[in-house]
Amino acid sequence: MAGNASDKQPQGRYYIETWGCQMNVHDSEKLAGSLHAEGYTKAESAEDADVILLNTCSIREKAAEKMFSDLGRIRAIKNRRPELLIGVCGCVAQQEGEAIFRRAPYVDFVMGPRSTGSLPETVRRLRGETVRKRTVDTEYRRDSIEFPFDRIRREGPHSAKAFVTIIEGCNHRCTYCIVPTTRGREVYRPMDQVLAEVRSLAERGTYEIEFLGQTVNAYRDPEGNTLAELLHAASEVEGIRRLRFTTSHPAQMTDAIMDAMAACRPIVCPYLHLPVQSGSTEVLKAMRRGYTRERYLEKIEALRARIPQITFGTDIIVGFPTETEEDFQQTLSLLREVEYDSCYSFAYSPRPGTASLELVDNVPQEEKAERLARLQALQKSIQERRQRRWIGREVEVLVEGPSKTNAERWTGRTPENRVVIFDGETAPGRLERLEIVESTPFSLRGRQVTPVS
Ligand code: SF4
Q1: How far is the CA of 312 from the centre of ligand 1 (A)?
Q2: Is there a cis peptide before residue 247, judged by omega within 30 degrees of 0?
Q3: What is the C-alpha to C-alpha distance for residues 131 and 286, in angstroms, rounded to an integer?
Q4: Would 12-143 and 157-269 be classified into the same CATH topology?
């Protein structure tokens, strides 16, 4: 979905490369929107662009190295066209700051995720200067959260689904995580602004909204409205058929939010991504997660009691400092107990700027790899079994686009976040009714029944 057309003189073309989570993808939609409002249009490749932005993520190992290697490629373009403007945005920008210029002096500006509102001004100034004065802007402002929503340039395959930011930053201090450093403390968007955006999207044909935030369930606006109030209000907006929110922190999954999820069924989807990270209370303590294994399981139970059909996804880190075989066994037993439908799992590696650097990384590399393989094999067998129970059932799927593995087929998602692949006549953004005829651990195969819309 495009943002409002710009009435400015054409300025040239922009190209944005994005890494990371949904928050980063959505930040790129805002960066694109602010350039579009200035009169820029999207370039098909970096080669054709006048402005190149790298919207970086520092969650993955060696993120900065990956960024510098990409910059090396972009440098060749700048050698041919010295007027090209290069900006580094996102979490690596925040973390590395000035250091980026030392290794890549051809970069023109560095901008943290909380100061992206100044992008138009920075681009205007730098392109107007004969001798460019490079800038670093890593202040924690409210720019990103206060971005005018009618300018967001959503680039997804269809307009039926949209991300909406409700909270930025994080007040937790998990020892392995850089987010509180790169994105700052929590700031919340007033609920009336969030609802205005939801209504405006619904008027343009969007019917699935995903609320975003690093700790989305910590949302509390200046009037005291929480995610519970927001779910109630958003589910009443005409035209909205599906609501999701990500990422939730287990410690902040309150009874009020769980009640709202149940009360707003079926609009609030029966799926929750609830990162546990470890099944051992001792390791959770070392991670400074703020809950125990028992407390986490109580939340799962409380959600299942309210919403029997709810399914869960999670994130797990194996081989965190001090994790023993016994701790790891507790993670495996938690996996068996909860039976997640999806699990993103990683072997721990120390990240620059995080508190866990002070802990001794005492699980040998081979041990981490071996634990990760055991965990993934177990999860695959759980998923295999859980996916099979869908065979023969009828589901409603929001069509996302052609399947990644076979462009002749379509892919879509059920309210429970199951990926379904199917053949037939349809289009991205449509809702289809499908009968499930086959399953794999990671996706389902469906057959069209009758179109829903
Ligand atoms: S809750 Fe923990 S893992 Fe999540 S963003 Fe905050 S510090 Fe990072």
Answers
A1: 19
A2: yes
A3: 50
A4: no
CATH number among 1.10.10.10, 3.40.50.300, 1.20.1180.10, 3.40.50.12160, domain 12-143: 3.40.50.12160
First to last CA, the chain: 19
Distance 173 CA to ligand 1 centre (A): 7
Angstrom distance (rounded) from CA 304 to CA 314: 16
Contact 32, 153 (CB under 8 A): yes
Determine whether domain 157-269 maps to CATH 2.60.40.3200. Answer: no
Q: Show the ligand 1 pocket: residues with CB < 6 angstroms.
A: 170, 172, 174, 177, 179-180, 214-215, 249
CATH topology of domain 278-388: Transcription Regulator spoIIAA (3.30.750)
In order along its 453 residues, the chain shows pLDDT tens digits of 444 445 677 889 999 999 888 888 999 999 999 999 999 999 999 999 999 999 998 877 677 788 889 999 999 999 999 999 999 999 999 989 999 999 999 999 999 999 988 999 999 999 988 888 899 999 988 888 888 898 999 877 678 999 999 999 999 999 999 999 999 999 999 999 999 999 999 999 999 999 999 999 999 999 999 999 999 999 999 999 999 999 999 999 999 999 999 999 999 999 999 999 999 999 999 999 999 999 999 999 999 999 999 999 999 999 999 999 999 999 999 999 999 999 999 999 988 889 998 999 999 999 999 999 999 999 999 999 999 999 999 999 999 999 988 889 999 999 999 999 999 999 999 999 999 999 999 999 999 996 555
Structure tokens at 264: 């707003």
Could you please state the CATH topology (level 3) that the domain comprising 394-451 is classified under: OB fold (Dihydrolipoamide Acetyltransferase, E2P) (2.40.50)
Instruction: Judge whether 4 and 42 are in contact, CB under 8 Å.
Output: no
Q: How far is the CA of 320 from the centre of ligand 1 (A)?
A: 15
Q: Which among 338, 345, 336, 351 is positioned nearest to 368, based on CA atoms?
A: 345
pTM above 0.90, yes or no: yes
* 271 alpha-carbon distance from chain centroid: 15
Give me the residue spans of the domains in the chain: 12-143, 157-269, 278-388, 394-451
